[in-house]
Structure formats: C-alpha cells, structure tokens
Amino acid sequence: MRRIFIKDVLQEHIIITGSDAHHLGRVMRAKAGDHIVVADDMGKVAECEITGFTENTVELKLLQELEERTESPVEITLVQCLPKGDKLELITQKATELGINSIVPVISANCVVKYDSKKAKAKQDKWQKIANEAGKQCGRSQLPEVQPVQTLKQWLENNAGDAALALCMCYENEEQQGIKEFLKANTDKKRFAIVIGPEGGFSLEEAELARSLGIASVSLGTRILRAETAAIAAMTIVQYEIGDLGGR
Ligand code: SAH
Asked: Is there a single domain that holds both residue 59 and residue 89?
C-alpha cells in the first residue's frame, strides 16, 4: 500500500494539504476509494481511505490503526563528517533503511568539501528528501531528521555532557576499545550517537578534543574502512547489538 507521512496527528477524518496533497493526487494519481497507509508525527500508523479531493486537498477517513513495529527500540544519531561528492546521499539512504533517527552532517578539519550557507541548506533539503524516500520505501513509521550542517567541534561540545546519550567516535587509530565493548557497556542506554570521520580521518586535535570531553573512542576492527562503509557498518552493528536488526 502507498505510504504518506503527515505533520499532524492521526484522527478519524484527515485533510491533507500542500505538497502531500499534490503528491497524492497528481504524482501518485490516487483516486477516491483508494486505501493508503498514513504515518503521523507521533509514529502512529493507520490504513486510510481516500474519500474526496478538492483543488488543493485530499480527504481521508481512518479505517484502522496498524500495529507496525518498524522503529528500533533505541534512538540512533549518525554524526557524519562531510565526505566527498555525493557519498552522504548513499549514507543517508542506507542509514534510513537501517532504522536510524537523525543524521548530523558536520564539518571537520579534514573535510574536503566546502559549502556556503545557501549550498549547505540546499544539501540538507536534498538529504532530507532522500531520507524521506528511503523511509517510505522501507516501511518506516517515523522518518529520520537530517539536521543542518554544523561544525564537529560545536556538535561535540553541545552533546558530550548528555548523560543519557551513549556517544562514541569511531577512530581509525583506536587500538584499545572495540565498538562491541562500548555497546556492551551501554546496554542500559536508549539513545546512541556515533561519530564517523571523513576520508582523511580525524585530526589529532579532534581526537584530543573528544578525549578531553570524555567521549569514547572506538575501533571498528583492524581494517581501515572507507567513510561510507564505516558509517553503514557502525549503524548495522548498533542495531544488531542493541536494536532490532537480529530479527524478532
Ligand atoms: N584516512 C584515514 C582513514 C579514514 S577512514 C587513514 O588512512 O587512517 C574514514 C572514517 O571511517 C574514519 O575517520 C573513522 O571514523 C571510520 N573508520 C574507518 N575504519 C575504521 C576502523 N577500523 N575503526 C574505527 N573507525 C574507522
């Protein structure tokens, strides 16, 4: 069944407006009587019937709430240093399929790409669109949020003090602690954030900053993975160890 996400709360009768209405009527060519799946802002999902159209709206009637369990029991944020080219598009798509909740694109010392604020906003919109598409395709009931581009330093300083957040930096030079060990020590946590570097890796200053903020440095194993592989592997590992990737 076709799926839409609404920035609203599900109720008996729903009126869809704006681009969602346009998408349903013009792009998806939905007709009165069609059944669609509607996911709301709170992660609730229902089967609805299209009961009518006007020029700019689509009216829906709620038929039955659906007990979907496509959201992970843990909330995961990927803090990704901007990689070259369009690699963040691939990372966003795959991370969405893997069930993560938030992507923070960050600028670090070894990032090669440079965006001015207009370009950064356009990129954020594009990544959000990719996350939305991927979320629809894989049956998510809540879409991940792509946050504005910011600096790694700023994000780390703002979030390191969050005691309820299990936060680690995947560091290519880490030889002591593996990600497995880190996750096993944090099974009581409900929120995770994983930081991944750009192609050039982290600078010594960044590794030092993370250490001084008390952020765990973890290894993904003995091979050096490309940034996109590291991001996808790390998301998979967290979902497998703590989340819902092992099957239910
Ligand atoms: N140019 C660097 C590698 C960067 S890999 C070098 O040659 O050392 C890009 C990012 O992927 C890294 O910053 C890190 O976040 C992650 N990564 C890749 N392999 C990793 C590993 N074995 N352990 C931990 N993180 C890794």
From this structure: no
CA of 107 to the centre of ligand 1 (A): 16
Q: Is 110 in the pocket of ligand 1 (CB under 6 A)?
A: no
Does the Cβ of 172 fall within 6 Å of ligand 1? yes
Is there a single domain that holds both residue 197 and residue 134?
Answer: yes
- Tens digit of pLDDT per residue, the chain (248 long)? 889 998 889 999 999 998 888 888 888 889 999 999 999 988 899 999 999 998 889 999 999 999 988 899 999 999 999 999 999 999 999 999 999 999 999 999 999 999 999 999 999 999 999 999 999 999 999 999 999 999 999 999 999 999 999 999 999 999 999 999 999 999 999 999 999 999 999 999 999 999 999 999 999 999 999 999 999 999 999 999 999 998 87
CB 93 less than 6 A from any atom of ligand 1: no
Render the chain in DSSP notation, one character per residue: --EEE-SS---SEEEE-HHHHHIIIIIS---TT-EEEEE-TTS-EEEEEEEEE-SS-EEEEEEEEE----S-SSEEEEEEEPPSTTHHHHHHHHHHHTT--EEEEEE-TT------HHHHHHHHHHHHHHHHHHHHHHT-SS--EEPPPEEHHHHHHHHTT-TTEEEEEE-TT--S-BHHHHHHTTTT-SEEEEEE--TT---HHHHHHHHHTT-EEEB--SSPPPHHHHHHHHHHHHHHHTSSTT--
43 and 162 assigned to the same domain? no
Residue that terminates a domain, selected from 15, 36, 66: 66
Testing ligand 1's pocket by substitution, the residue of 172, 217, 218, 229 carrying the most ligand atoms inside 8 A of its CB is 172
Query: Do 43 and 80 lie in a common domain?
Result: no
* 7 found inside a domain: yes
